Write a sequence for this structure.
């Protein structure tokens, strides 16, 4: 088995918002191996409670990935869909998807009207114009396969871990789940106060799992662990770069839902410097994470992420050294638990 065998399993296993069960099974299996006690709440969050008292730090990585839900099956057997999470319709066309039918997985291709047949010079597609072609000829055939209104689908992809990078689907946020599991294995628990390590549901559609946990624990500190936007690619002006792949853990200073507490940021960066952990700062005004719920419940809040190029598409790419750096940083934070903050 390769060193990234667990991440491979996490990425290749389907788990759209509200349907994270198979991802939860993988995580629970790993927690069992590591001898951690865990709990599962009614909506599917999986979490581990370590230590006791205050401060209480809630660390979370979300299990769900972007996907689609079938809204209608046409008479010809095409599947009309809506999006679960942020998807660019223009880049979705032609991608292979796994349809999670009741009778087993079915493969299909995302289609739309070919560009040269669009009227009035229209170039940009909407989600309503997309459909999934599963190679059948009638609605009845699709129904027989166990596909109907409410059936979900995710991108189907391979996983590659040769060389310096990992490539696969759903690195947002399976890489965060992987990081949190590995950090738990390394740290075991806090030397001070209490840490809750959580694997949340439905982040891509509003952070609903995190909201539940925020209300349950009312954390003093809340940290989201993500596979985040790395746009250090051709055509992006240097002043518009959110994070750079290969440049270390991304500390989120602000996004559309939080402004990180500066004392918390300074504490993390100083601790990282002492432990020789490389970090970079992220400003991401158009995105958000589970952390938005932690700040609303009064927690000091920040995000710590692995930079991933091409998130919210069928494939992403992340540098292994960034993954390992974030594991190191999160393990240090679990153990220290902000005892001098």
């Amino acid at each position: 088995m390769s060193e990234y065998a667990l991440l491979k399993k996490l990425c290749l296993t389907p788990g759209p918002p509200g349907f994270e069960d198979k991802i939860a099974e993988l995580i629970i299996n790993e927690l069992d191996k590591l001898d951690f006690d865990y709990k599962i709440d009614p909506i599917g969050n999986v979490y581990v409670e370590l230590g006791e008292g205050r401060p209480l730090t809630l660390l979370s990585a979300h299990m769900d990935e972007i996907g689609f839900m079938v809204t209608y099956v046409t008479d010809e057997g095409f599947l009309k869909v809506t999006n679960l999470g942020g998807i660019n319709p223009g880049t979705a066309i032609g991608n292979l998807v796994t349809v999670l039918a009741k009778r087993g997985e079915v493969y299909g291709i995302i289609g739309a009207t070919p560009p040269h047949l669009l009227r009035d010079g229209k170039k940009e597609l909407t989600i309503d114009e997309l459909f999934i072609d599963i190679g059948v000829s009638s609605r009845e055939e699709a129904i027989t396969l166990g596909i109907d209104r409410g059936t979900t689908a995710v991108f189907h992809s391979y996983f590659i871990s040769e060389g310096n990078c990992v490539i696969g689907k759903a690195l947002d946020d399976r890489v965060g789940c992987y990081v949190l599991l590995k950090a738990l294995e390394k740290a075991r628990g806090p030397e001070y106060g209490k840490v809750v390590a959580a694997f949340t549901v439905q982040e891509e559609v509003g952070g609903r799992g995190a909201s539940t946990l925020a209300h349950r624990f009312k954390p003093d500190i809340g940290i989201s662990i993500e596979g985040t936007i790395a746009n250090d690619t051709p055509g992006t002006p240097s002043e518009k770069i959110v994070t750079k792949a290969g440049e270390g853990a991304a500390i989120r200073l602000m996004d559309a839902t939080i402004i990180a507490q500066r004392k918390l940021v300074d504490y993390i960066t100083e601790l990282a410097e002492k432990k020789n952990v490389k970090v970079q700062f992220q400003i991401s005004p158009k995105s958000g994470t589970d952390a938005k719920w932690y700040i609303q419940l009064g927690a000091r809040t920040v995000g710590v992420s692995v930079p991933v190029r091409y998130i919210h598409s069928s494939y992403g790419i992340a540098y292994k050294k960034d993954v390992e750096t974030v594991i190191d940083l999160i393990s240090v934070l679990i153990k220290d638990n902000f005892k001098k903050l």
The chain is about 30% helix and 30% strand. The domain at 67-155 is CATH 2.40.30.40 (Elongation Factor Tu (Ef-tu); domain 3). The chain has a mean pLDDT of 95. The radius of gyration is 20 Å.
